[in-house]
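OP here, attaching both records as promised.
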Amino acid sequence: MVDEEAGGFGAMDAVARGKLAKAVLVAEPTWGDVLPVEGGLEWARVTIRGRNAHSALRYNEIYPQRHGKDRLEPGVNAIELAARFITAVRQYELDRTRARSHPLLPIGMNTINIGVMHGGTGLGENGLPTVMTNPAIIPDVAVLDLDMKFLPDENSADYRRDFETFVHHFAAADAWLRDNPPTIQWELGGLYFPPMNTSPDHPLVQSLVANKARIGKTPQVKGFVAVCDAAHYAGAGVDGVIFGPSGDGFHGADEYVEVDSVVETAKVIAASVIDWCGVR
């Protein structure tokens, strides 16, 4: 499928055009196991605003001052606010991963990764600070990009609502943020993967298990800890399953699959296609 690496926009386009089926099989590497579930994935951007000031006047921000008419307006360091937010997100992540799990996935896989952070001055039209190389300025903006995983039996609307509530309560505990709350941009870069939660008893899942067992070891039925194109079909109501060969080096210079496992995988898929579609 075109553009599988950069967000699955090829599959998204196919789904939008109504190119659907009763089931979908995606041959991502699974080392011969059968994976009928995967969690959902959100990309989000949290923007935290502060107030500019000269770094020489930092004392006016962090130490108690008399609030006289001659006092300069104190700065508010957005990067320091972001540091506190990162700590709070870590606790929020721990609370969620401890409270919720899925039987086919490793406990704790529903993580939040703060993968990108930009801090500086002057929010640009692109949503990022325009000045990020001058430490003499108390920064007025920090931007954090988050990779957020949720469970196969959760949905995006509830997940977003829960996170927005967390951000609201975080801001409510700070005098500045109460009046200047962080903003959240969902589907950053147009990226969103719905969850897939196909039953292990689904006929296509059972067919793959049986056909794999006939020519090799009996596969495990478990969940996919990453995301793939199957998610976009699942979001359109199509039952999906992931089954593929063995390999290594993913997203690296030496990404590969083992030839023998490709041949075995092709045999299993061919047999399961006959089981599912029948013959004429």
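Record two, same layout:
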Amino acid sequence: MFSIRKSTFSMGTIVTITLVHEDIGYAKRIIDEAFSELKRIERIMSIYDEESEVNKLNKEGFLEHASDELIYILKEAIRISKLTRGVYDVTILPLIEYIVRKRGELDEEELERILELVDYSLIEISGKSIRFLKKGMKIVLNSVAKGYAVDLASEYLIKHGVKHALINAGGDLKAVGEKTDGEPWRIAIRNPFEKDKSICKLMIYSSSVATSGNYERRIGSGNFSHILNPYLKNSLSSQVVSATVITERALIADALATSLCAMNPSESIHLIEELGEAEAMIITNNRDIIKTRNFRIYEGD
């Protein structure tokens, strides 16, 4: 058996697929085909591609004949928004654009007007049509589309006989089976305060891990995290510096990790415990590490 690794740039990040297989040529071809699946989803979801469905929806406020993929992702995003009571909201783009435009110097009255556009309940989906119920609304799907693309890529690998693989899309990881028979995939979770060190190591089989953080990407001249909570009007950012979620689907892990970074620490852990289908670890700006009850099951040396 050989370990074959290839990388590409997709979904705004470096994506690496590691595949353990007896046929090197076949493995390389299947990895390239899985990369094509990632790029296909990117062409639908990108806010930078003029021809993407999301871009057309944001410009016009409605979209007829939407793809099954976009309909599915939006419905999943709305479901997670309901679970998080609106802390997670894909209609956050007008707020992000406002903060960037104002270089972090926000006007209270303007902010109130912008926040009126952030409301997932004003997305109307009917059959293959999507419509915003308020003019000026926009969506950004980065926090869910990448995980979805990873899920599709893993499904493609499994369909073509792959039993041992790991997909890493800039912090969104999915394991297909084990690394080798009886040996798990080992994942190091970075320490947000000492980036050359890990806070823990995870052992995973056929599951997904996503880590989001408030400590790297900043907007508004560095005054705000790129992960925003529209309900925290004074700071728009929570006390959570980093959040790691382990669950079956990368889409869910991706969205939940983003959500936890926008919530209060106690609320975030309570949410995961209440869901019962995921485990999580959060690190606060006070360097406290809080884990769900069964997170330790995945920890190794």
